[in-house]
Write a structure and sequence with these properties.
Elements (H helix, E strand, L loop, with lengths): L18 E4 L5 E6 L5 H9 L3 H8 L8 H8 L6 E8 L2 E11 L12 E8 L8 H15 L4 E6 L4 H8 L5 E6 L2 E7 L4 H23 L3 E5 L8 H12 L4 E5 L9 E2 L2 E4 L11 E4 L6 H11 L3 E4 L9 H16 L3 E3 L5 E4 L6 E4 L7 E8 L2 H12 L11 E6 L8 H9 L6 E6 L5 H12 L4 E5 L17 H10 L3 E3 L2 H13 L7 E6 L2 H13 L3 E2 L3 E2 L6 H13 L5 E6 L10 H14 L5 E5 L5 H8 L47 E2 L2 H21 L13 H12 L5 E2 L2 H9 L8 E3 L3 H11 L3 E5 L13 E5 L2 H15 L2 H4 L1 E5 L4 E11 L3 E8 L2 H4 L4 E5 L4 H10 L17 H17 L3 E12 L3 E3 L2 E5 L17
Length: 949
């Protein structure tokens, strides 16, 4: 049923309100505005709602909607009357609407800032978190339209809807009158509402990944009738891994009488499978994928692993094909790994999932592994499980995700899963790019507080096919922000595995003090030098000489670990020969038993071609039984992932915890620099984790005029979409946040310069502000300490002779500030990473050498303190080589005030204070620019959404 729209009801459709969301159970739904074209959908939806839910919505029996109701609920102006629907498969499963009201409760328009809100959720979808997601989105829409408060009337028996409102975290008021509960709540986000929103986001996204990694049934679509091929290989990998759920082989070309393939039930279509299918592995060519997705969606499949290539990696046509794939899958509430994926693995004993192209399961363990590229995934699995050369000392994998183009499920989603996964102690990620750095840093900070997160970050572009905002920040800046968020940032996959092996099986060091013991003086000294280079504090190496026995190593390691001045121990070992030479197994057991005596300190081994020591170190603490023969279905030869190494014939019923002997496997490294680099990263991470427990505070300043600044910004933005504001407006705006700027008066003539100096008071500075001379005192465009008119006129004449007439110089006169260290403070709103405050010394240090430090907004007092000390040239602020220390507390306060300005007002998209002279007492801001722009329609305080297509 369709009702013609009145012309005045037709406003521009707000497409930016459309969003895909993950629901509480891990499925997805689409939220979009309701339009006049939705009349039939609305009627169909309402017919599927129970009489009880209808009664709760309208407070009376209401079996069907009248034509007038349908018109009212589908005709919106998208300002004072707004309706949103949650849809799956194109059909409504829930609706929400608001109507702006005045003080008397009647319909109103702006400037009225209150609205009534009401929900209706189909009974079959209640309990999935649909209403909570809709509340987040309708609240964001209302804030955008100038509505600051919602009111809702709910029957007392409608406890589910009351709970939706009460649990949202907004500041609210509750009353009871005439048998109805009236709830009123402000829409301004609070710390609690943000915490609630992000906790819901984490649970939903983690659940969506868990459904992929722990399915009860799997269908492989595209299984060939003859051996070989991608689909047949994946089916074999799943079967050989011992997948504990139901397994199905699907190919529309199967003969009608074919019942099994390799002992697995065979079907011509997913529709023919009797029972639910949780995960479908799609191994058909790209042109056939849409048909497969439709079949899966109609059968109720929860997720897809799409192995097919030919998508965004292949060009514009493939990019559009990829976007269509994601839109189609989300229509049915499914999530996708891929396309162009390598696959997923879960080694848990109750799952045993190998839905990947890896021919064998990796050993069970405590490391979660994510890689976009299949080739990198192969390399990581190989390095983690190799014995002999390379990094040794082995551990296993809990789960592995190689996401290909990561069109839907990304590293952020998997990080949400690993955050509270009890089977994962360490997370290793190879990220070719970070599509949403703002969200990633937020998730990384939370995850890093619970378990180590080690990342190799590529310098690639945004994921192909994604409609995400690209960061404008340099690669190095993004890396610095990741470190601030607790990410252990390394440069190569070798370093990734090195760090992961240490963190997975050894405790975190309490500090940087390192003991070095070994049987080679030269190897010990090399290790000592590398410790110094990495910023550690090594003690002089203890040389046990080449005659050292296993007992000597045990005694030395035990003494070192017992020493309170030692936080970690590096054991260096070279092979020995001759009578009485220590054996590999004997030495490994000596080191292991000594390390167990003091379990709170990490131990690492640097070995040089020591035969089986690394193997022995691994075996010394292993509790899993070893394979005497190849595992069934694996063949007898070596393979690319673990050369000459086979799986155990049995898997422990429960994986060991970090406190069991299994967890104290001692990692061994073939080079001192690799061991020390891994240890240094562990030391820095442990320090970050201690500091993260007390993250600092964002201070309040009594002299900040936030409202006055907002009014000034609003008035300035009325002049245009984006602008760099003038000097006077800049000084006024910064002044409202307690940031004073020294006045600089234009001096187009010598007489004007003298008049300006008289106004400001001597001594003064004369500066050329032409673009090629600005902030370049080294070029001679500045004259300082001009004490009187005579000196000023002489300086004016000199500048004119050197650089040209005043109209080219653009000279200004400024009162002299106290002498100090020239610095620069900047803040920028990056479209992907968010607001960032940067600091460095002015001039060559920041411009030529890039010596700048960065912090995410809001900056805390601890952030400001560390920011000032993070640049390489920081000693110049603290009395380097006998100079007077400057007022760094005043500098830190300035940084905090700038952070507050950009945090309070997203319209402030760029601030530059240069130079900022930090004197022995106080700071002087001598130059400032501010750029304004309209705030984005949605920001990080907005509702949960998946990346748009």
């Amino acid at each position: 049923m369709q009702t013609p729209a009145d012309p005045q009801d037709r406003h521009e459709y707000p497409s930016h309100w459309e969003a895909d969301v993950v629901l509480r159970d891990g499925g997805t739904a689409r939220i979009r505005p309701i339009t006049v074209d939705d009349a039939e959908r609305l009627v169909s939806f309402y017919e599927q709602v129970s009489d009880e839910s209808k009664y709760y919505r309208f407070f009376a029996p209401y079996p069907r909607l009248s034509a007038k109701d349908v018109h009212r609920f589908t005709h919106h102006d998208f300002v004072d009357r707004v309706g949103l629907a949650a849809t799956i498969g194109g059909e409504f499963i829930a609706t929400v609407r608001y109507d702006r009201i005045g003080a008397d409760g009647t319909p109103a328009s702006a400037p009225a800032d209150e609205a009534e809100v009401a929900f209706l959720v189909q009974d079959a979808h209640q309990g999935r978190g649909v209403a909570s997601a809709l509340l987040e989105h309708i609240a964001a829409v209302a804030r955008e339209r100038g509505i600051r408060r919602f009111a809702a009337e709910v029957l007392p028996a409608n406890t589910r809807m009351i709970k939706v409102f009460m649990d949202a975290g907004y500041t609210q008021k509750r009353s009871f009158e005439d048998g109805v509960v009236r709830l009123e709540f402000d829409l301004e986000p609070t710390d609690r509402s943000l915490a609630v929103q992000r906790a819901r986001e984490q649970r939903a996204e983690a659940r969506s990944v868990r459904r992929l990694l722990a399915p009860g049934s799997v269908a492989v679509i595209g299984v060939g009738r003859a051996p070989g091929g991608v689909g047949r290989s994946v089916l074999g990998n799943l079967r050989d891994a011992g997948f504990t759920g139901r397994l199905h082989a699907v190919n529309q070309a199967f003969p009608d009488d074919l019942k099994e393939v390799d002992g697995v039930p065979a079907h011509r279509s997913v529709r023919d499978i009797d029972g639910p299918v949780d995960l479908a592995v799609v191994a058909v060519p790209a042109e056939h994928v849409p048909e497969v997705v439709t079949e899966c969606g109609e059968h109720g499949v929860q997720g897809l692993v799409v192995l097919a290539a030919g998508y965004a990696e292949s060009g514009p046509d493939g990019r559009e094909r990829q976007r269509a794939l994601v839109r189609q899958a989300r229509t049915y509430g499914m999530r996708i790994i891929g396309p162009n994926a390598f696959g997923i693995i879960n080694t848990a004993a109750d799952v045993r999932l190998n839905a990947s192209l890896a021919p064998e399961m990796p050993r069970p363990g405590r490391i979660g592994l994510f890689a976009q590229s299949g080739a990198i995934g192969i390399a990581l699995l190989s390095r983690l499980h190799r014995r002999g050369g390379g990094v040794t000392g082995t551990t296993g994998v809990s789960t592995f995700v190689s996401s290909g183009n990561r069109a839907d499920v990304s590293g952020n989603d998997v990080l949400q899963y690993w955050y509270d996964d009890p089977e994962t102690d360490v997370v290793l990620m190879y990220l070719e790019s970070i599509g949403n750095p703002r969200k990633f840093t937020r998730l990384a900070r939370r995850t890093g507080a619970a378990k180590p997160l080690v990342v190799v970050q590529g310098a690639g572009q945004a994921p192909p096919g994604h409609a995400v905002r690209a960061t404008r920040l340099p690669h190095a800046t993004v890396s610095a922000l990741l470190r601030q968020a607790g990410v252990i940032r390394v440069d190569t996959i070798t370093e990734l595995v090195d760090a992961g092996l240490l963190l997975a099986r050894q405790p975190l060091p309490a500090g940087p003090r390192v003991a070095i013991i070994g049987n080679s003086e030269s190897l010990g000294l090399l290790t000592y030098d590398r410790c110094l280079a990495e910023g550690l504090r090594p003690a002089r190496p203890l040389d046990l000489t080449t005659r050292a026995s296993a007992a000597d190593f045990h005694r030395a390691l035990s003494r070192a670990l017992a020493d309170e001045s030692c936080d970690a121990v590096v054991v260096t070992a070279i092979p020995t020969i001759g009578e009485g030479a220590v054996g590999d197994a004997e030495l490994a057991e000596a080191l292991r038993s000594a390390a167990e005596g003091v379990p709170g300190k990490p131990v690492l081994v640097v070995h040089v071609e020591l035969g089986g020591l690394a193997e022995a170190l691994s075996a010394a603490g292993r509790t899993a039984p070893q394979a005497a023969a190849p595992a069934p279905g694996t063949g007898g030869g070596a393979h690319p992932f673990r050369p000459a190494e086979r799986l155990p014939t049995e898997v422990p019923a429960k994986l060991p915890t970090p406190h069991t002997p299994y967890s104290r496997l001692i990692p061994a490294y073939p080079a001192a620099e690799r061991a020390v680099r891994a240890l240094a990263e562990a030391v820095k991470y442990a320090q970050w984790q201690r500091e993260a427990a007390e993250p600092g505070k964002v201070p309040e300043f009594d002299d900040i005029d936030e409202r006055g600044a907002a009014e000034l910004i609003g008035a300035l933005l009325e002049r245009g979409e984006g602008l760099t504001i003038g000097v006077e407006e800049t000084c006024r705006l910064l002044g409202k946040y307690g940031i004073g700027v020294h006045r600089a008066l234009p001096a187009p003539t010598p007489d004007a310069a003298v008049a300006a100096a008289r106004d400001l008071g001597y001594p003064v500075a004369l500066k050329a502000t032409a673009p090629h001379l600005r902030h370049r005192a080294d070029l001679g465009g500045v004259r300082l300490d001009l004490a009187d008119e005579e000196q000023l006129r002489r300086a004016y004449e000199e500048l004119s002779e050197l650089f040209g007439p005043p109209e080219e110089l653009r000279p200004v006169v400024q009162r002299m500030a106290p002498r100090g260290v020239d610095t620069v403070v900047r803040a920028v709103i990056d479209p992907a990473a968010g607001a960032v405050v940067s600091f460095g010394l002015a001039g060559a240090a920041s411009q030529l050498l890039g010596d700048m430090a960065h912090r995410l907004v809001p900056v805390t007092d601890r952030d400001a303190t560390s920011l000032v000390r993070s640049i390489r040239t920081a000693p110049l602020l603290f009395g380097w080589r006998g100079s007077a220390p400057v007022d760094t507390p005043a500098l830190e306060e300035l940084l905090l005030r700038v952070s507050r300005l950009v945090d309070d007002h997203p319209e402030v998209v760029a601030v530059t204070l240069e130079p900022v002279v930090v004197a022995r007492q106080g700071v002087s801001v001598l130059g400032a620019t501010v750029r304004l722009a309209p705030p984005p329609a949605r920001d990080d305080l907005g509702p949960r959404t998946l990346p748009a297509y």
